[in-house]
Amino acid sequence: MAQNEPLVTVVTPVYNTEKYLAECIESVLGQTYRNFEYLIVDNQSKDRSLEIAQRYAERDNRIRIHSNETFLAQMPNWNHALRLISTDSAYCKIVHADDWLFSNCLEEMVSCALRHPTVGLVGAYRLDETRVNLDGLPYPSHCTPGRDLARLHLLGKIFVFGAPTSLLLRSDVVRDRDPFYEEDNPHADVDACLATLRTTDFGFVHEVLTFTRRHNESATSLVKRFGTNRLARLEALEDHGPFFLAADELDRRRQEASRDYYKFLARQLLEQQGHDFWQYHRRWLDRIGHPLSYVRLALALASQLLDTRSSARHLVAGFRRRSATRGAS
Questions:
Q1: What is the pLDDT of residue 216?
Q2: Half-sphere exposure of residue 83, counting CA atoms within 13 Å on the CB side?
Q3: Which residues of the chain are modeled with pLDDT < 50?
Q4: Distance (Å, rounded) from C-alpha 277 to C-alpha 325?
Q5: Residue 27 — φ and ψ, nearest 5°?
C-alpha cells in the first residue's frame, strides 16, 4: 500500500445473489489499489449468499460483513449500507453483487479524485453487458464543472452516470446527504448525482473500468415495464431544472419531455396496459405536481392513430403481451 493512500469503502448489498457474488467479490479483492475496506451487507438472503461472503471474509480481513436484522427494500437498503461506512473513509463505491470491477478501477478513479479535489463524483466508461457506453465527454475532460455536466444531462445531450457501480463517491458528500438516495424514486441514483453536482464537480476516467449485468429481476425491469425513465426526466426537470437551467431552457425542455411522455402513454393505451400501469403513472404524476391530463392524452392518441403502421405495431405488441401473460398463468 502506498503511503497516505486514502481509505476507500466498497459496499456490496447482497440479496439472493449467489450466482454472481463470488465473481463480484473477487473483482474487488483483485484491485491494484490496496487501501480499501469491503463492506458486504446481507439483506436477509435465503440462498447461499451469506455463506459465500463469510468464506471470503475468513481469507481477507478487509472484508466486513453486516447482516440486516430485517429485510429492507432496495433504496432503504442502499442508504442503510452507506451509513455503515467507516468514519475515516475518504471515498466510497457501491458495487452491485452481479456487477464487477476491472482491476485498475479504484486506482484510476481515486487518482482522478485526488488530482481534482472539487470532484464529488468520478465516472468512467463501462462495459454494459456486451457494449461500451457512458461516453460523450470529450477527451481529456478529467474534471467538468458540476453545473455544466448537470445542464448537459438535463438538456438530454449526455448520460455519463450509469448505475451506482459505475461511480466513485466522495464519502463526505454521502455523509452530508442523509438519506443519500430518495427512497420512493426508482431513479434515485441519478437524482443523487444531480443533487451532488450542485456543490461539486464531475471527474471522469477515459477507460473502461466497470461491468454492468442486465437481469430481469433488477430495478431496470421496472424501468422497461412502466417506462419510468420518462417520468424521471419530468421529475428531474422539476427538482433540478430551476437550479441548472435558464428559464427559457427549462420551459423548452419541459415541453419536449412532456410531449415525449404523452406520446409514450398513447402507445401504451394502444397496447392496453393494465390497471397497475396507469395507477403507477397517476400516482407519480400527482407526486411531482403534474396530474394526468386526459385532454393531452386524447390528443396524443389521435396523433398516434394517424400513423397507422406504428399503431398496428403497438396493438400487436399488446396482444402478444396479454397472450403471454395468459399462457404463463
A1: 45
A2: 12
A3: 1, 216-217
A4: 15
A5: -70, -35
Sign of CA pseudo-dihedral 99, 192, 287, 239: negative
pTM for the predicted model, two decimal places: 0.89
Q: Which residue matches cell numbers 438472503?
A: 45
Task: Give the β-pairing of 36-42 and 143-144.
Answer: unpaired
Helix (H) or strand (E) holding 132: strand 131-133
Q: Which runs of consecutive H residues, i.e. helices, occur in 155-273?
A: 171-176, 188-196, 219-226, 228-244, 247-270
Give the DSSP letter of residue 14.
E
What are the cell numbers at 125? 466508461
> At 122, which helix (H) or strand (E)?
strand 119-128
User: Residue 321 has what pLDDT?
Assistant: 61
288 sits in which H/E element = none
- Residues of the chain by 3-state class (helix, strand, coil), percent to 5: 50, 15, 35
Kindly list the structural domains of the chain, giving each domain's residue range(s) and its CATH number in brackets, ordered by start: 8-214 (3.90.550.10), 224-328 (no CATH)
Q: What does the pLDDT read at residue 1?
A: 44
Given the C-alpha cell 427494500, which residue does it identify?
73
Helical H segments across 61-218, by residue range: 74-82, 105-115, 146-154, 171-176, 188-196
Residue 133: strand, helix, or coil: strand
* Cell numbers found for residue 247: 428559464
